[in-house]
Every structure is written in C-alpha cells, then in structure tokens.
TrEMBL record, chain A:
PANTHER family, sorted: HYDROGENASE MATURATION FACTOR HYPD, HYDROGENASE PROTEIN ASSEMBLY PROTEIN HYPD
Species classification: Bacteria, Pseudomonadati, Thermodesulfobacteriota, Desulfovibrionia, Desulfovibrionales
Organism expressing this protein natively: Pseudodesulfovibrio senegalensis
Protein name: Hydrogenase formation protein HypD
Similarity-based family: Belongs to the HypD family.
Record keywords, A-Z: Iron, Metal-binding
InterPro entries reported in the protein's UniProt record: Hyd_form_HypD, HypD_1, HypD_2_sf
TrEMBL record, chain B:
Record NCBIfam families: hypC_hupF
Family recorded in the similarity comment: Belongs to the HupF/HypC family.
Gene3D superfamilies: 2.30.30.140
Organism: Pseudodesulfovibrio senegalensis
Pfam family, one: HupF_HypC
Record-level Gene Ontology MF annotations: carbon dioxide binding; iron ion binding
One GO BP: protein maturation
Identification of the protein by name: HypC/HybG/HupF family hydrogenase formation chaperone
PANTHER family in the record: HYDROGENASE MATURATION FACTOR HYBG (PTHR35177:SF2)
Length: 364, 82
C-alpha cells in the first residue's frame, strides 16, 4: 500500500474527462448542496468550483459544526469560561466564534480564563489527570464523525476512574438536518453531496429517505476532486433518466451500514434529543445528549445550562447561507464588517465555513 | 472539524496505532477502540481527533477509479501527479 492510490483521485487528465462528460450530459440546471465543511473547502481549494459547467449550481449547506452551533450554545460555553475551578477544552475552531457583546474564547483566555485547545479528546484525559482539583470541561460540538470519539473518551475516563472530566454536549446528527432542509419549501435543491466521514460512521442506509420521501438524489463522496466529480456525474445522469437515488462513491471508506463499533460506542453514551441549529432553528431529534447512565460527565446538568432560542446576531445572514438560500457575498456584512480577521458570524470564523472559503478563494 | 486524514499503520501496541501521515516523518497516535476489527501493519486508517474511524479498502479504491474512468469514457491513468 502506498499513498499513490490516493493521489490518483486527483488525476488532472481524468478530472478533465469527467468535467467534459458532465458538460455533455448536463441537461438544464443542477442545484446541488454539499453538507460537509471539508467538501466546502475541497471544492474551492481544488479549483473545481470555477471549472464546473455553468449549469451546475453549488450551494454550501449546514455541514460545518462550528457554523451550526447555536448562539445560545456559544453563550453557554462563554459563560462557563472563567468560572472558578473550570478548565475549558475545545478544538481550535471554536476559539473565535463570537457570542453576544463580542465575547469569544480567545478574549476570555486573554482575560485569564483557563481555556485549552486540544487536538484530540485524549488530551482532556491528560489534563484531568494533571489537574485533579479542577473540573476539565470539553465542549462537544460536531456530527457523527466526532461524537464517537467523545463517547470513547468518556468510556476511557470511566475505566480509569477519572472523576473530574465533564462534557458540554452540543453534538448534532446529519440525516435529521437534511430532512428539515428538504421540508423547507424555500430551499430549491436537486441533490446532496453527502459527508464522507460522517457516513464512514453511520453508513448509507440513513439517507434512503431522501429519494423515497423527497424525490431528491444524494451521493456519499470522498474529498478528492474525482470523488466529487463522480458524485455530480451520477446525479446528472439520474436526473436525465428522471430518477432520484442514493449512492456511495466513497466505497474505499464507507459501507452500507457504516462502522457498527463506532455507532455502538456513540449510542451507549448518547441518546437523541431535540437540538437548536443556528439558522435552522429547533429540529426534533437532531441532537445528542448524555444518557442518564453517564450523568457524572454531563456539564449541562452540573451547571444547569439551558439552551433557548434567542435573538440572532444583527445583520448576520449565516442562517440563510447555511440553508443555501443566500450566497455569502449576498450578506451585507460580507467582506466589510465581517472578515476572517474580524468575523461577525460563524460561517466566517471556521476554516470550513462557506463565508471563509468564499473570502479566502475570492469567489466572484 | 470533521476532517479525517489517511495515515499508514507503522506499529500497534495496547490498542493504539502509531501511524505515518502523508509521506513525511510525521507520526500520530490513534486509538483503535472504534474499529470493528484491528488493522494490519501497512494498512491505511482514516483518523479523526485521535481515533481511527475506518480502514481504507485498497481494492475498493481501485474499483472506484475504474468506474470513474468508465463513466468518463477515458482509459484509466496510472499517473501519480495531482
């Protein structure tokens, strides 16, 4: 085995041929949405967006975990930062997400709050061991790719008898969000490019409702240019034949039923709950919360944290951008009041956000 | 945040794999507790936040490339650039 096999998914000549086939086969307009932040970045970074035939309309959906973290959730973890005896840990993406009054974790850290960026939830175990008199609270955001890693960490903590680790659980699940998007009459879509690594965990089966209930197509795809092009080609061909289907072009990683072990660990620790999504509002059954049997890890219960819908950031169009109703450059703040250096909304903060990608790659 | 990277398994000890990322000398450690079955040395894992999520299936990768080249009506390239 070598890395060469992976390189071949970026073969320029094969990409050109698939692009030519796409242009030839396309009949009318195809509006597709990718629902993974890594796809967002890959589509811009590889130059695919500018190479796609004109009739293919690309929209970025709610696939960036930071972008869909609700304002109330952001305020909740900002309130927790700086509390006596608390060490807050997070993946780096959350450090500059603004809450109300311009607060963010980076500023809280500068003001003396103990906030630590970690690469892996493993690191929180080390912090907990080294600081037995403090509570180490990890902010759990992300989808089915990330949730099993947090669940695994909780299992390790219990096994080791670590008693000062807490999880502030804001995990969300992808299929329920897609159902909510498709149920919204304002959103005109032909199909989805489905997230590769969420699907590595959950498989393809949970997406079968997309053609069955809504008559739309969807393809699980990897992150290389040919992965994305092949997914588009399939959707174009199905549409030409008047079909709506779900398929998987990322078979080297994703199977029909996903990773049963990761799913078991995730649902041993978490159970479905209603969740607030930035821009999408309350979606029943779209979140994960800690089961009663694991209550000793639950920061929400320990600190009486309640997540409620509040006012959105004034002027920020992240919500409409996440639904594909508006492009980033149609937000009045884009590139003016809101830039990567001074982000107003989460879509500009995260490297996987569509506003940040638009800004970085200077899309016209 | 959901970015998961492919990495080659160099060694395994106590359910932890030491893996090489890309072609360089950088290695990362990954827990194997979320994998349904243990990997072999030399296999590729998809790793996210310190946990291996799946083993890369080389045969399926080859099959995907063949399918793409057929769909594009183009002979399969063996080039490695890109």
């Amino acid at each position: 085995m070598s890395f060469d096999i992976l390189d071949r998914f970026g073969d320029p000549q094969l990409c050109r041929n698939v692009l030519d086939t796409l242009a030839r086969e396309l009949d009318g307009e195809l509006r597709f949405m990718e629902v993974c932040g890594t796809h967002t970045v890959s589509i811009f970074q590889s130059g695919l967006r500018s190479l796609l035939p004109e009739g293919i309309v690309h929209l970025s959906g709610p696939g960036c975990p930071v972008c869909v973290t609700h304002e109330s959730e952001v305020n909740a973890f900002l309130d927790l930062a700086g509390k006596d005896g608390v060490i807050l840990t997070t993946f780096g993406d959350l450090m500059r997400v603004p809450g109300d009054n311009g607060r963010n974790l980076k500023k809280a850290q500068a003001d003396g709050a103990r906030v630590r960026v970690v690469y892996s939830p493993f690191d929180t175990l080390k912090l907990a061991r080294e600081n037995p008199d403090d509570l180490v609270v990890f902010i759990g955001v992300g989808f089915e790719t990330t949730a099993p890693t947090i669940a695994g960490t909780m299992k390790m903590a219990r096994q080791e008898g670590i008693r000062n680790l807490r999880i502030l659980c804001f995990h969300k699940t992808v299929p329920t969000a897609l159902d909510a998007l498709l149920s919204d009459q304002d959103i005109a879509l032909d199909g989805f490019i489905l997230p590769g690594h969420v699907s590595a965990v959950i498989g393809v089966e949970p997406y079968r409702f997309i053609p069955q209930t809504f008559g739309k197509s969807a393809v699980v795809a990897g992150f290389e240019p040919l992965d994305i092009l092949e997914a588009l080609l399939r959707m174009v061909e199905w549409r030409k034949r008047g079909e709506a289907r779900v398929d998987n072009t990322y078979t080297r990683i994703v199977s029909e039923h996903g990773n049963s072990r990761a799913m078991d660990v995730m649902y041993e620790v978490f159970e479905p709950c209603d969740a607030l999504w930035r821009g999408l509002g309350l979606i029943p059954g779209s979140g994960l919360e800690i089961r009663d049997g694991w209550v000793e890890f639950d920061a929400k219960r320990e600190f009486d944290i309640v997540i409620e819908e509040g006012p959105a950031l004034p002027g920020c169009k992240c919500g409409e951008i996440l639904k594909g109703v508006k492009r980033p450059d149609q937000c009045p703040l884009f590139g003016k009041a809101c830039t990567p250096a001074n982000p107003v909304g989460p879509c500009m903060v995260s490297t996987e956000g569509s506003c940040a990608a638009y800004y970085k790659y200077k899309v016209d | 945040m959901c970015l998961a990277v492919p990495a080659e398994v160099l060694s395994i000890e106590n359910d932890i794999a030491v893996c090489r990322v890309d072609r360089g000398q950088t290695t990362i450690r990954a827990s194997l507790m979320l994998l349904p079955e243990p990997p072999q040395i030399g296999e590729f894992l998809i790793i996210h936040a310190g946990f291996a999520l799946n083993i890369l299936d080389r045969e399926q990768a080859e099959e995907s490339l063949r399918t793409i080249s057929q769909d594009a009506n183009c002979p399969l390239s063996t080039g490695t650039e890109g």
